[in-house]
Write a structure and sequence with these properties.
mainly alpha; 2 domains; 6% strand; de novo design (two linked rop proteins); two-stranded antiparallel sheet
């Protein structure tokens, strides 16, 4: 993708979200891919809104997941229970992890929430919250675990 030009001098690529905040993140080793629907689907992500987000090594994945969940919790119309309650609860649990009060069981609970939120609502807002958060935990689990065990961020 030629992403190194998008980084500040001295920073390393940490990940790319190719289709806006609602799609799964790609780790650097996954980024050598064509920017089309089929190629990205083959990597487990989507083109989405085409709003590419390039993330450098100064970013905290826990904080990014929290911001993502907060955004969707604020945007939900509240009609579907999985979206209304799932986005709110996900934000609460991620907030707890981010601020040093998380437990290891919280990581599996969030992944279970993500599973229960996908494909079961009238619109895709619930999916849009679940897919990126799920991918961040799966692909950067060491950061989430560090937050839980060390009660602080490993990148700040």
């Amino acid at each position: 993708m030629g992403l190194t030009r998008a980084l500040k001098a001295g920073r390393k690529l940490k990940g790319v979200i190719p289709g806006g905040s609602s799609v799964p993140i790609l780790r650097p080793e996954e980024c050598d891919v064509r920017m089309d629907f089929d190629s990205l689907a083959g990597r487990g992500t989507l083109l989405g809104s085409c709003g590419m987000m390039v993330i450098d090594d100064s970013a905290c994945m826990v904080r990014l997941a929290l911001r993502t969940a907060r955004f969707y919790a604020e945007e939900t119309c509240g009609q579907c229970t999985q979206c209304r309650e799932g986005t709110w609860w996900m934000e609460q649990v991620l907030h707890r992890i981010e601020h040093g009060h998380g437990k290891m069981e919280d990581l599996q609970m969030i992944l279970d929430m993500c599973s229960n939120m996908k494909g079961v609502t009238i619109c895709v807002l619930s999916d849009a919250c679940a897919m990126p958060v799920e991918a961040m935990i799966q692909k950067y689990r060491e950061e989430f675990e560090y937050h839980v065990t060390q009660k602080k961020c490993m990148v700040s």
